[in-house]
Amino acid sequence: MLRVRGVNQRLTWPFSARQAKQLFTLYKKSPACMIPACDLTIKNDVAWDELLEDDIFPRIEEELVPEGPFEAILSHLHIDGNGTTAKLLPTTRAKGSFGTLCIVLLSEHVGGDIHVTHGRHTQEVYTGDELYASFVAFYNATTLTVSPMDHGRRVMLVYDLVYMEDHASRDAPPSLAAVSASLASLAKIPRQYYANLAYRCTHQYMLLDFEMLLGVDIAFVQAVADTDAYDIAFCGARKKPFHGDLQTMSEEELARDRAIAEDPNALMRVTTSDFYPACHTPPVVKACLRARPLGPVVGAIYSESLHIVVWPKQHRVRILGWTKAIEHLKLLVKQATSDLLGYTSVDAFALATIEMLGTTDRKDDPKDVDVPNPLDVLPLLRALDSRDVTATFIAEFMDLRR
Description:
Elements: E1 2-4, H1 17-26, E2 33-36, E3 40-42, H2 45-64, E4 70-80, E5 97-104, E6 109-111, E7 114-118, E8 121-125, E9 134-139, E10 143-146, E11 149-152, E12 154-163, H3 177-187, E13 197-200, H4 215-225, E14 230-238, H5 251-262, E15 269-275, H6 283-289, E16 297-299, E17 306-312, H7 316-320, H8 322-333, H9 346-355, H10 378-384, H11 387-397
Helix pairs in contact: 8-9, 9-11
């Protein structure tokens, strides 16, 4: 319940033209109407504070990743019928201010989308849903533009986001440069234990489409893409794909599948995927990702199906698996294909394949169906005629005994 000084009745929602006219007679209308916090009273303030602390603040912590604990100080009520940035920000900033929170109350309007930009990244925020309230929060270091409003009025409560601890001062998104540098360094490590890393998405998505990603999800993808050292796939995964018709499966088969689904240690396997275009992942690698087990999973704890899966380009053979990597190496040696899958030479592809012999990750192949075998390499060494490849094979994987 929201009351305005000088207005006899409380404001009702959705916001009506009659209420707007009444407020416009008390407060300046153009280019946007602003009613200061001192003239506002939130009657059910306890429930409102619970909404802020239980629902809105956790999302701000999740998406903006502020430097420390914070509070929201009400600045004013903003009524906009044009689509303008005027009075969209707090009128004054408290010490420790790092951002703005705008809570869009139920108000019918068309247009007026808010565009938040920082560096080369822009996020568009749609606020025109008249059935649900919504909110947008952003750092002080961002810039705003607003699309023209074609119809109606948007009503928002504008808050100043303020750090509660003196040492906290960052008013911009955390830099991804250090993350990208660390990821680039990790990609160079040979014989990695896991074939891939899975990041569990924070948001829920209806489609496997990189253009749909939001917040920290797209930030993670951008940090990985900036290294130019990884392949990136947006994947659906499940503990076990169903192998048969549920109507015809036996009780034993159904019981087995239920047990696997309930087993917290059961492998999650890729079922569907979309690939980040800028990585130029070869088609054969894309095809081999399906049914691959996910590596270590990081990220959100409540989503079970959608993941961003990444692996170093120099370890693409790990996605192929031993058998397919050897098959492809044979084709390269016979010059039956020229597709190096991104490796710089046939020797480089051979060395990457040989490194799989020293990989002890049985998570990729728990039934030992595709176990690397040194005997598969021996016939290829002579054809490769590479001192480096042969020396690596002998030094690392042949057991020399008297």
